[in-house]
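Notebook p. 47: complex prediction with S-adenosyl-L-homocysteine.
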Amino acid sequence: MAIRLNQNALDGIGMTSARTRARLVERLRAQGIKDETVLSVMSQIPRHVFVDQALAHKAYDDTSLPIGLGQTISQPYIVARMSELAHAAVRHERVLEIGTGCGYQTTVLAQLFKTVYSVERIGGLYKMARERLTALGVHNARLRYMDGSHGLPEGAPYDAIVITAAAPITPQDMLPQLALGGRLIFPVGQEDQELRMIEATLDGLVETRLEKVKFVPLLPGVS
Ligand code: SAH
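Predicted complex, structure tokens below:
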């Protein structure tokens, strides 16, 4: 599948990494990622433009990396896993991401859904992500600088909500913002964290406990 990014912007950033991305995708496959659309999207998005230039050579390793201001870009596996879970929602109109960070996952989600809303509580990261997404030609992402602990009523209902920072308990406030058939995908816990999913079905909310994870904490307020 062809991704919706500005080709001119992509041409200027060293597409020699195409082979490296192909290896990344093979690794994701081996780790159990099955959604071919997600794999295709991740094989085309240049992850190295989202990290500090000094770390660009590590951009395709399966690790989280610092993006400044004490935050990290999630490891490719977890971006793929959460995106795959989101993409398995019934519809693909609107997705909400809590924690824009560097905007990498926002860019992945922007290829899978018609519109992506993404909120970030750190002004410096919000600004950098906004500039980067504009340069890449991601036109269907709406970024907001705010505390996303309670979701974002503005774009609701969402077909998927992906939280990329861990709350100590399930963020109940976001459940009413899910569309029928929608899914909330979130890490929960402090030291020991777990990835969970809550689906809004005709029979009510259904929770699935998925796997052990490690995210930065979901914090209140803006900075
Ligand atoms: N989605 C990013 C992951 C960024 S790390 C990626 O593609 O790699 C998680 C981000 O969540 C951090 O940037 C952090 O500042 C942000 N965050 C933490 N608590 C938040 C809150 N209450 N509202 C919005 N963003 C929050």
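Notes: The beta strands are 65-68, 71-73, 94-98, 115-120, 141-145, 158-163, 178-188, 193-201, 204-213. Residues 7-213 form a domain with the Rossmann fold fold (CATH 3.40.50.150).
Next step: compare against the earlier run before touching the bench.
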